[in-house]
Write the structure tokens for this entry.
Amino acid sequence: MTLDQLACFVAVTRSGHFTRAADEVGIAQPSLSRQIAALEKDVGTRLFDRGAGTVTLTDAGEALLPVAIRMLEDRAEAYRQIAELNGLIKGRLRLGATPSLCISLVADVLSQFHAKYPGIELHLTEAGSRTLVTKLDQGELDLALVVAERTDKGSGLVLTPLLSEELVIVSSASKPPLTSHHSMTLAELANEGLVACHDNYDLRVTVDHAFATAGLQTHTVVEGAELDAVLRFVAHGIGVSVAPMMAALHYPGLRITRLTAPQLTRTVSLAHRSNLAPTRVSAAFHALLDDAIAENTARAIASFSPASS
């Protein structure tokens, strides 16, 4: 029984699917199946009941699961303590971030972090805030950048709000401006053809809620894209969209217009587990993160200053 086999076992249990579990642990599906088969041979019994499209734990699997999770958490804690002993020369950081933050803030910070601490191994998980919170709670991440102001009571996580980010209207810089003013209302935006993210994106939920609250109907020309694709489509003039300010500033070919009546914002927070003190690696990342936020905030202010209009 190896820790890698247990990691595969836990991944299959959580996802209920061999292919998704293989993606989670970063190996090919046949390799994961071999790991599970070797583990079952070692313990002398089946751990999963495999049905048509379903994978469920046997009684033996149920008994092994809490032990496996505890052993994997012990490994993560060992890595954490060794990283502390090594200072910032060696170690690893398992970071989670939402897609919109990966486009902007995370790209800035990771490049600086790697240049300053080349011996630190970086692992990035890109997912929605709810998924990241779950992974953090299960010990799969050290830190997570999420769009949230608070966590559920008793979650075992600590959330540190970093900034309140403005959501803006983006359109193609190669097309005529949407308005002769520097801002548009939500009602005016409803008259434009919209490019929208997947409906499970935090951003999409916020924007849909704003339109629904205002009693406005929208016309969507493209729906269900990843944020990077949304911004590309907008830059090519397919439609307009609402995007976080930092992502908009980082993407070429976009014209930014402020959204008013109502103004929409989102809270970006850094999350970690409450039962683990931040490591020196995590603290170093947080410090660079604060610097990057200050720089991006200054860029946002400058983009709407009279000199830039």
About this structure: Residues 20 and 297 are 38 Å apart (CA to CA). The two ends are 64 Å apart (CA to CA).
